Prior knowledge:
This protein has about 900 residues and is an alpha+beta fold. The protein folds into seven domains: about 1-125, no CATH class; about 130-215 and about 310-320 and about 335-345, no CATH class; about 360-440, no CATH class; about 485-680, Band 7 domain (Tetrahydropterin Synthase, Chain A, 2-Layer Sandwich); about 685-720; about 760-860; about 860-900, no CATH class. The protein contains 15 helices and 53 strands. Strands 2, 3, 5, 6, 7 and 10 form a six-stranded antiparallel sheet that branches. Strands 15, 17, 19 and 20 form a four-stranded antiparallel sheet that branches. Strands 22, 23, 25 and 26 form a four-stranded antiparallel sheet that branches. Helix 9 packs across helix 10 (about 635-650). The longest helix is centred in the C-terminal third of the chain and has 122 residues, at about 735-860. The radius of gyration is 68 Å and the shape is flat. The two termini are about 130 Å apart. InterPro entries: Band_7/SPFH_dom_sf, MVP, MVP_shoulder. This is Major vault protein shoulder domain-containing protein. Keywords: Coiled coil. It comes from Nannocystis punicea.
Amino acid sequence: MAIENRQKIPVPRRSFLWSLNETSGEILTHIGPTEFTPSANDRIVRSNGRGGYEPAPMEARPFIIARDGEYVLLENPVVADHPEGPNGSYVPGGNKEKELRLGTKKIIPGPCAFALWPGQSAEVRPAHKLNANQYLLVEVVGPLDETAPYYRLVIESAGLSSVVIDGAEDNTARRSQPEPATKAHPTQLRIGQRIVIQGRHTQFFIPPTGIEVVPALEETEGRGRDEDGVTTLPAAAQEELAKLLAQVGEGMSVKQFSVVKNEIRHRQDYTSGERGVILATLDEAWNDRAAQKRQRTADGGRGVAADPYARRAVVLGPKNFCFLFDADGNPRIVRGPARVFPGPHDTFLQRGSRRRVYDAYELGEHQALYLRIITPIARDELSKRLPPGTPLDRDHYEAGAELLVRGLPSVFFPFIEAEVLNPVTREPHVGNDHDAVVINAIGIDQKSGVYVRDQRTGMVKMVRGETSYLVDPRGEEHVQRRVPHDKWNLWIGHAEPHKLTTAEVVTPWALSVIVPNNEAVLITSRHGRRVVVGPRTELLDYEEQLTALKLSKGKTKDGHTTVTTCFLRVQGGRVADNFEIESADFVRFRVKLGLAGHFEGEPERWFHVEDPVKLLADTVRARVREATRALSATQLLIEFPAVVRKTLLEGDDGLLRFADNGMVLSGVDVLGFQVADPALAELFANVQREAVSLQLQDQQSRRRLDSTRLRDALDADEHALQRGASQRMAETNKLEAQDEHVVVALKQQLSAGRDADVLRYKQQLERLAFEATRDREREQGELSAAARVLAAESEAKSRGLVDRAAEAHARALAEVEQARAAALAQADAVRLGALQHELVGALQAAADSEVLKAAASNMNLVALLGGKSPAELLSQLVRGTPISRTTDGMRAREASAKDGKPGKQD
């Protein structure tokens, strides 16, 4: 440890270190250039930030350096300033402690460099760079340094004790004039007094000693959050906004930024307030990026962080305004275009705003705002605050009075004496979400309506189309009607099946009921009832309802099975009913009747009976059963339709009227009539068939008898006429008795001639018939023979064709076989030709081998004796004989083998 303490520590120029003597407690400041060798009791220390000291590395620390555009905030400065240095004088080497002004701060503008004395701490800050729309809020913490460069600016700014507004034109937002600058002593400033340093007065500011800059914590923490209204956006909108901000930060082009903003302006899934928040946030991010780009250009490309102490003034456009509250809580509304610098103790209203900026209310021709007066105001003064042409019916408006400001169209700015109310909750509204408070007129088409309740009387009226109606929230309320799903289906679904539902219906429109042709509905309310006959579209008042009927349905209209409906058919109604009757001889019959009718008389009387179908069926059954009890089964089988019509349609006009509900039965049709007992029904059927058969036979006999009687009467009449003629002729020709015999003879002759002519004509007809029959048979024979000849010729032709086809087929097969044999023969010849040379060579080789064997066995000795070779001797011996070809072939093959060419064979 002692060795470590004795190490030499070099302290270069513009460096220092603190050494604590543990024995005396004294701290020495060693300022370079020097060299320090600590003893065993020396420790190198530094400040721990809590007023004490802690061990430090055994090395020197550099001077505190502030460059141009920076300043040093020095805590506990030395008591006696020295002109040689901003933090007292020093000598190279060890320096004793300086007397300090504890608990105070001193601001030293750059450029400067100095060492710290024990007990001091320093913070180097960049000078505050402000643009025209920024300001600083500073606080007086001690006496001011009158020699500081910005002392006079602080004194002049201290005279601006309230809000400063540039560009305001109305009386509610006048610019507060600053007090003239004086040479007042700094002590006139109060400790704790706050002063606003505006960027329009200076773009560069270093606070003098005695002034402390208040951090803009409320702005830096709330920027982009509640102040901008971003937190009020839906989750999906916040996520989309975050993506767009990231794209802006990554370097979106001007054209892309313009396209994105245009798309946001036309998004219908966002309210106008939400669109305004998104657009303002994007504009702010774009402006920040542009400002950073300009700053980097001015600083030679180095990035400069935003000043955390700078605050933004509120810049208002032509359709913007803001709320300010002074220290006493008095509000003020500032309208744009303006630039607002708040006073030291002024605060902005930020709830629902977009960076403390609110949008004016844009009112169309069919829009309005609901206002409440909160401060008494005269009529003339109020008319200046409202859009031109707004009607005012009082000379003075007290607090609590309510107004409805209608659009002309116009742009409306709120004012202090009034507040905008939510027309539904009647709570004061502050924010840019104008859709929640702007009252829109209801456009009503020609077949619709709306319900409006008078809040003073509670009466609900119906406003019919076609019109545009603006509900006045001061005394009216737009009422929605709740209709259970069963009633909705009965009233609306009858004519519009696509509107059927299974849930309760809540509609802001008046109920529109379509009444089809030839149908009627009964509409009831506490004021009475009325009947509507279709075709027609009827609007129901708020408390009107349709009366429901329960009509019997099914095969038997006895009321056990019903269908509920509100629509009654008054013309062309038809109903079928099945029931049983009993005859006088206790035979039961099943009857099916088709009934047609309509309604007449007073319309309200049509709905007196809940089930007119059951009333009609019961009445018809009772009358028909009563009439059939007096007739037998056989009579009913014959006369039932007539009995039904006589029983039901017994009036003079052939109609059956019902006095209960004005129903009229105009037609009856028997659709079915049969015996209920199957066995008895079969018996009746058999008897009926037999009776019908007998009736047919009787009718046939009667017709035959009538025919015989008619012929006999005709014959009797004819003879009577003949006798009369004879008598008249005899009486007339008494004198001509002689001629009577001639006449009789002539009659006999003529009769005989007539009989002969008849016989001749009959024979001639028989002969002609025989000749026709014979000619027909002969023609049939000839035709039959011709047909057989044609059949034989056709068969012969077909057989000839078959034979020629078979012959051609056989000839083709023979040609194919012949061609095949020729092809095979040619193939064999080719194969034999291909093998001929090899076969001849093989045979010759075999023969040569045999000859050579014989010569070899017999010619050796002779060859030796003659001095010739065996081959020469053999050639000589066989020359001129057929065997010579063997030796010649052998020589030829030998020569060809030597020349490399095949030898020619014989």
